[in-house]
Fold this sequence. Notes:
The complex is a heterodimer.
Chain A: H1 3-7, H2 12-18, H3 25-45, H4 54-82, E1 93-103, E2 115-124, H5 133-142, H6 148-161, H7 179-204
Antiparallel strand pairs in A: 1-2
Chain B: H1 18-26, H2 35-44, H3 48-53
Amino acid sequence: MNEDFLKSLPSLDICNNRFCFIKNELIRNNCAIYLQYVALLLAMSEDGKIGNYKYPLYKDIIVYAASIIEAVLEYSVDEYIVKGLADVSYFGYSTNYSRLGKVNHECAELADCELLVVKLDKTPKLRSRDLSFDDINTAAKKAKIIEEAEYKYADDLRRKRNRIHISSLEKNTNDYFSKKDVEEIFENAQTILKKVETKLLALQA
Amino acid sequence: MRDKKSIPQKKPSSYKTKIQRVQDIYGKDGSSATLKEASDYFSKVGYKSFSELLKPSV
């Protein structure tokens, strides 16, 4: 990296301004920090000297891009809930089972089984740490913040982000993502961001 | 050995700390590009979509 390289990166203020439609300062600032970091990773991946290091960089870019989209979608659903346009149930439920008892039996077919009586409690997923990217995508679609096309883009991003466990990889990790894939991800991310931004600005008007 | 009188007591107005020199070149967070400069750079290196993504819609 040289001086010209760094001079091409957007400042944090510019990245912050990109998310001006997010009124929560902490979420907006963190999205901006991630966006600025993505810019750094992208620029590094274009440095001819790094060779094959660019492939793990593509993976990191995808992980951070996914985090941004996930945060923006969750924020948008929360805003809709506050305005009464969506319900907390859109995020889905956590299920908890409590064992109440055991049934004694002499059924031959179930000889190896225990028959239990359980109580099932369903509670809405309210806190961010209970929510998955899938829950958030589904909620944003239910709330009609995003439509089928944007939902598929977000889901595709979620799947790409999840390709992280070495034992689950079916080919060389450097063969999963190319520059073209990364460019496509940003096209799709921009589509999602524009849709969410339009919806939130209409809400705020 | 230098005596105390030969040591400058007041820094000249052009004196800058190392941090200030770095900030002059790179900006406070290491980045100094305007939106147009950053956008043009990423478009030039083949990331037109990221270049567009940097720009606020309104």
